[in-house]
Structure formats: C-alpha cells, structure tokens
Amino acid sequence: MNYPQHIAIIMDGNGRWAKKQGKPRTAGHYKGSENVRDIAIAANDLGVKVLTLYAFSTENWSRPEDEVNYLMKLPSVFFEAYLKELMKNNIRIAFIGEMDKFPAETRKVMENAIEKTKDNTGLILNFALNYGSRREITLAVQKIASEVKDGTLEVGDINEQVIENHLMTADYPAIDLMIRTSGECRLSNFLLWQLAYSEFYFTEVSWPEFTKEELVKALDIYANRHRRFGGL
Ligand code: FPP
Q1: Owning domain of residue 42
Q2: Average pLDDT for 186-212
Q3: Residue 138 lies in a domain
Q4: Which end of the chain has less Cβ packing within 10 Å, N or C?
Q5: 122 lines ligand 1 (CB under 6 A)
C-alpha cells in the first residue's frame, strides 16, 4: 500500500462533540486527547513515520480563559495517563511551537516525554502547541536575516532548502497528507509552507469520533490519488 510517511491532522470538533453530549467544551478536549492516544497507536501500527497534530494554535489564546487554562494543562494529563503505553509502542514524542508560554509544570512534563522516548524508533508523535505557521515563518526569516548579518550566510545562497532548514519541521520528512476533521475546509494557519504539495482530506467526522477505521479510510483514499507535484 502506498501509505503516507508523514500525516498532519487538524483535530477539529471537540467543542461541538461535547455540546452534542450536553457536556462542557473541556470534556470534548479531554475526549479528544484520549483519541490522540488511539490514533497515534493506530498510525504507528500502520507504519506511518510522523504524525503532526495541531493541538493549540497561536490564535487559540483568544478563547475563554478557563478553556485556555485547561488546554495548557492537557499535555500533563495526557502524558501522566499514556506515556507508559506510548513508550511500550516504541513511539517518540516531539513538539513544534513556542513552549515558553506554557506553565513550567507542563513544560517539565513535555521535556520528560521527549527525554524518555528519544531512543524510540517507531512513530514520531509531534504535537504543534502554541504553533502558528505565520509566526514560524517569521521566526525563520529572523534567523536567516541574522545569519546574513553575521556573515555566515550570503543573500544569494538563500534558497528553498535553507528556508526549510529554518522551519520547526526541519527534522521531518515532507507532509504527504493533511487531514481536517469536523467539516471545516481551511488551513487555519497550520503548516502553510509545508503543505504546498500535500494531499488534503476533509471529513465531517469530529475529532473525538475519528477512529482507526476513519484513519484507514483516509489512507486508502490517499493511496489511490495520483500525486503529480506540478508535472503530468
Ligand atoms: C479544536 O476543536 C481543537 C482544539 C483547539 C484543541 C485540540 C486539542 C486536543 C484534541 C487535545 C490535544 C491533546 C494533547 C495531549 C495536547 P474546537 O474546540 O475548535 O471544536 P469546535 O470547533 O467544535 O468548537
């Protein structure tokens, strides 16, 4: 099967799912975090190399304070519950985004998850937290400009590869497939550069209800697409 190596997911619909159940939005995020465990293990079993999940965007700060606080603490709750199981599945944990905005306690848990799983050779489960693509590109431009200023880089040597190397995803293969759940069809400032030639898959299914079967359905559709990268 021609399955993707790197999948990115916009995990949308937690709030609507919770509302349907008569529960607070935070219950939807909790259920969504449980599903992160299930889908990470499923993706690992299917041979996917990297799974990048949009868990908190630079725009999510504008949500009500109690929801933001809940989302800030969710990584701690998640790793407390599932780090052992992820470890057993040979899954490596990584993050992109600006972590310095997270509470110290949450950062400690995240650093511990990176450290504990650093030698694992299975799926890389990469959380985008306090991540926004425009911010990422802005930071890359700043770094490149300072290298030019220091004299370590010539303006004429700035090419696409140099830009890629300065993005937060520099260590990972190109993203083959981007999935967004829950019916919205937009990118919401997610990986704008990296998704230039990726396949997109949009589904009405909400993130808490996005099962392994739904993932396999998306991968089968991907496998039957013909990627031309601008050629014929
Ligand atoms: C979008 O749904 C979802 C988020 C902004 C948060 C996603 C976070 C998780 C799924 C949990 C992540 C897990 C860890 C371990 C960090 P929404 O709230 O916008 O849903 P709505 O559009 O239905 O309101």
Answers
A1: 6-132+176-223
A2: 98
A3: no
A4: C
A5: no
Query: What atom of ligand 1 comes closest to residue 28's alpha carbon?
Result: 18
Ligand 1: does its nearest atom lie under 6 Å from the Cβ of 36? yes
Residue 188 falls within a domain, yes or no? Answer: yes
Where is 178: in which H helix or E strand? strand 177-180
What value does the mean pLDDT take over residues 16-20? 98
The CA 141 to ligand 1 mean position distance, Å, reads 29
Q: What is the pLDDT of residue 1?
A: 74
Q: Alpha-carbon distance 120 to 85, whole Å?
A: 13
Mean pLDDT of the 157-181 span: 98
Asked about 60 being catalytic, the answer comes back as yes
User: Which residues touch 208 (CB under 8 Å, ≥6 apart)?
Assistant: 13, 14, 17, 28, 31, 32, 34, 35
| CATH number of 214's domain | 3.40.1180.10
Catalytic residue check, 89:
no
Q: Summarize pLDDT for 50-81 with one digit per residue, the tens.
A: 999 999 999 999 999 999 999 999 999 999 99
